[in-house]
Amino acid sequence: MVVGTSVLSWRLLCVGMYYSGVLSCNHEEQHLLLTVMAKNAEEAALEYRQALDDLKDNNKMQINLMTILADDYNSFSKEIVAVIAQQIMKVIPPQKLAVMYVMDSILKNVTGAGNYKEHIEKIVYKGDERTRLALHKLRQTWTGIFQRSTLYKIDLAVNAIDPAWPIVTPQPVNTPVPGSRPQPVVMASHQPRAAAKVHVNPHFLQKNSVSSTSTTTTTITTTTTTTTATTTSATVDNKLPLA
């Protein structure tokens, strides 16, 4: 290490060597290279601003390195996002888009103590029309990164500036209340009942019919016999001699 060189200058020198290809390293070595943390938020913001100034186009290697820096400085996420917001405002349109890609890479790859999403949602709508067109493509990839309500707020904010920006209204999700049970369907008690049907054995009806006929015939026969007996008795009586 060069004597008298500050930590910040030495780190920027390493970054420059990485950009120029003089220094080559894998992903793990990149983290080792960038582990020297700034002493405070002011130094972190200064270093990140200087690195952003070197970003002129959509250079994947530079954007990856900016993402690693943001991960290293996640304790200063608020300050880093403020630097990104200022950079979006001051650079020319083509560079605005490159900074937007840095922001998108941070959203999708950086996790940790710093809540970048909380700060970035306040600045995503800044930029000219061309930048917003590219930003809309990025916004379509943020489902699952931001909450639906946050994406809805972003759409409303951008639409207020650019009416051509579509607003995606979040659809409510019907979730059952824990512990609740579905209510049973109660049938009305006054509904008319179907007429009751009585099933009778046809053989039973035939048997009763025959029995009834036999009884009637017997009765008639008995009556006839009684009548005949009465007539005979009267005839016999008529033949008796008079006293």
Automatic annotation (TrEMBL):
Domain of life of the organism encoding this protein: Eukaryota
Pfam name, any one: CID
Keyword Chaperone: no
PROSITE patterns (UniProt xref): CID
The protein's name: CID domain-containing protein
GO molecular function: mRNA binding; RNA polymerase II complex binding
Signal peptide boundaries: 1-24
Residue ranges of every copy of the CID domain listed in the record: 40-162
One cellular-component annotation, GO: mRNA cleavage factor complex
GO biological process, one term: mRNA 3'-end processing
Keyword list, A-Z: Signal
